[in-house]
Amino acid sequence: MQEVGEVRLCEKARSEIPETTTDESHQEHVEAVIQDDCQIEQKNSAPKPEICNERLGHIINPLGFRKVCSRWVP
User: What are the domain boundaries of the chain?
Assistant: First the structure.
């Protein structure tokens, strides 16, 4: 890992993710997308393309969905 000034590159990339991605409006969007198409991939259910898979996991887990045989189930 390279260091840039005081911040390591991985920490810098992580700090750029907005904390508001797990707010209620994003949860509602992801829930509607998953209910509309239960076979959608996690990365395609993002309300904004810049939200990473890690953040999507933080949005999807509280909704109670999990993948079973390539389908999202509550």
Answer: 18-73
